[in-house]
Structures are given as structure tokens and as C-alpha cells.
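lol ok so funny story. i was supposed to be doing the assay writeup but got distracted and ended up predicting the structure for this chain instead. priorities right. anyway since i did it might as well share w the group, maybe its usefull for someone
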Amino acid sequence: MYPYHYFFTTKDKEREAYENNLFWFNDALHYPEPLYPFDIIWDEAWFLALSQFNTRIFMIPPVYGVDHRIINGNVYISPVPVTDPEEVQKEFHYSWKGLVTIMRTGTGCMNSGKKDARDYFRY
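and the output, tada:
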């Protein structure tokens, strides 16, 4: 009853290779008990939000977000790595530039004419 993309697979060789190359761990901190199929909206919401914030706002250099899988109701997560070295450098440059700008203005965005911290970062 879970969505098909939440299961590990052996049918699709490309996806199987992708899943086998990641480090998966049980997310018992956020899900101490097995997740019921109709409660999956909780996982969908933070999966989407965390992945978008990692790639668009915070731009954490080595990851694009997290991937989720479910086995017997237990949620397993893994960071989605950035495999292109040029992309890592580009993301780091923009993130560092934005952070340095915020630190140099002293009060962040309050007196700099920017609306909020997101204006310092590339989307």
C-alpha cells in the first residue's frame, strides 16, 4: 500500500545500482515506530522540503537532499550525493559567497537592503 518509489528494487538494474551505492540507515529518530501506509504524507512533506532547501536555499555542497525507502513500515534514508566535481565547486562558491556577505554586513539582512537571507543565495 506504499507508493512504488518507496521500495528497494531489483527489477530496474540502473536503480538497483544506484540504491546499492548509497549508505542507507534507519531513521528511527523521526520514525521510532513503523509508518502506516496512510501516514506517508508526513514523510512526503519533509522529504520534499528538506531536498528543496538543500538544493535551492542552503545549497549544501556535497548533497542534493535525501532519498527514502520503506521496508516493513520502517523508513530508511540516504543522502543523495553530488557526483560531478565541478558542481560541488560551483555550489560551494555560491554558498560561501552568500555566507561571507551575510557575515560582513554584521546584522545579516536587516540593514543591507535585502529582503531576507534568501536574496544572498542563487536559486
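The chain has three helices and three strands. The chain has two domains: 1-83, 84-118.
back to the writeup now i swear
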